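Researcher: Going back to the complex we discussed earlier. I've cleaned up the inputs and rechecked each line, so this should be the final set. Can you rerun the prediction on the complete assembly and write out the structure?
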Amino acid sequence: MEIRTEKQDTLFVASLAKGLKLLRAFDEGHTEMALSELAARAGLDRSATQRLANTLHQQGFLEKDPVTRRFRPSHAWIELAYAYLWSDPLIALSSPKLIELSHQVGETVNMSELSGMDIVYVTRLPSPRSHFAATLIGRRIPALVTSSGRAILATLPEEERRAAIANWPVRQYTPLTTLDRGRIAGEVAEAVERGYSISKNELILNEIGVAAPILDPDGRASAAVHCSVSAFHWTTDRVEREIVPYLLDTANGITPPRRHR
Amino acid sequence: MEIRTEKQDTLFVASLAKGLKLLRAFDEGHTEMALSELAARAGLDRSATQRLANTLHQQGFLEKDPVTRRFRPSHAWIELAYAYLWSDPLIALSSPKLIELSHQVGETVNMSELSGMDIVYVTRLPSPRSHFAATLIGRRIPALVTSSGRAILATLPEEERRAAIANWPVRQYTPLTTLDRGRIAGEVAEAVERGYSISKNELILNEIGVAAPILDPDGRASAAVHCSVSAFHWTTDRVEREIVPYLLDTANGITPPRRHR
DNA sequence: GCTGCCGTATCATATTATGATACTAGCAAT
DNA sequence: ATTGCTAGTATCATAATATGATACGGCAGC
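Model: Rerun complete. Updated structure for the full complex:
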């Protein structure tokens, strides 16, 4: 069977874990799947997939097209996000300030949180020119390739910082995505000095991103406020003059509650 | 055991269904729960809850505070929303137009979809004065109490419309929420004539909502575009003059793909 | 210092999930 | 049309898996 890696046995329910794998099989490239496709992507046999998918379906977690018989995510998925957003105290704390910032700068404003070695977008306030994926919450991106991730990293103790830069994953999103860890280290070092991080062409061509960390009471960040603008209309200089002051002000105005580690 | 209601047996995985119940136990009022609380809310015994919650935890679907031992939703929940948003073709179709509308009217703009007898918010573009819950996607509300729901209902065949008004659930959100089905019928009738629906004080006091249906190729709607403004700054008259034209234009500009029923 | 609650761990049992197989429908190519 | 393939659905005997009762230990309130 080999689902679990270690010896955790009696308090592990394999069927549940498999069902979750089915949910995880959906992403931006796989928005709708037939039974066998689903089985293949989740790494399960046809029988198991059949039973689990049916269960998910009749529990309201999977929509099933009556004619194509293909499965797709249901509204339950977005309702879980609603529960998440309530559970995360940063959301309520930051919302009004992010909205204010978005009006001040007139450009796309985001908030992202560190999640393992990635960052996940939790708030997105799009401007008229936003790229589509940039308007959706829940996107996960390796921390090292984003200004948000670098801004957050910059607040960690040097030891951790160094380890992260050396080991955390990177991925190429554009031909100009920085994969060189030496250069990433340089960017993070700069963020340490300045208190914010700025990047260009990392995720999308002609996109400039600026991010400022949201500091915990103990000085570490686990989230960042971030603006994204087009390099057609902006230069990094102008971003630093016209956006960064508001950005820092916003980020500094948010104090998350202390949380156990 | 009694989880399932009918005779669907061999292709039903009870453990998975129970695990899903745990996820569903979280909502705006229950953002973080101890094991026994979770067990109570999900209607499961302590042992089952222990095993299922541990499985969810080690699969990354539940965060566990190391000191309080309380569980809360993880980032996985919001990533599912990301997958959902990609899977729903209406999101990509409508995004640019909704953003445009939000700049035209300068007020909160939403898109919601019919989900059973409720509507669910799938897009939210908040304005500076938005109520917090009004900035979060994934909220589910009985269709009959919202202008969106009524606007959608107004596009259905009279038979279905009548049945829905008679049987679908309602719920009191403010002292002024309309619970009288006769008056709801009147509102829907008005929406049939005008092509949009307007309401006041239904969900929040001093809130005016206007919604226009997004019509499928066959003339039925399963979604609506919606604006929400404060009655301190607006009258319904002014809303009809200054918002409705843009709103209708936006809604009419969105044509969802035909989908099997 | 005692009591009760809550989270954690263990274990023998049979209920439950398993996955191989057979059946059926739709589609493509011949 | 006929055949053959692929993909979804249904069935079933088997044993592996989930079960839930119980016991342990820590912590908080009394």
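Model: Worth noting: Residues 10-11, 14-15, 45-48, 51 of chain A lie near DNA strand C (CB under 10 Å from a C1').
Researcher: Good, that matches what I expected from the previous run.
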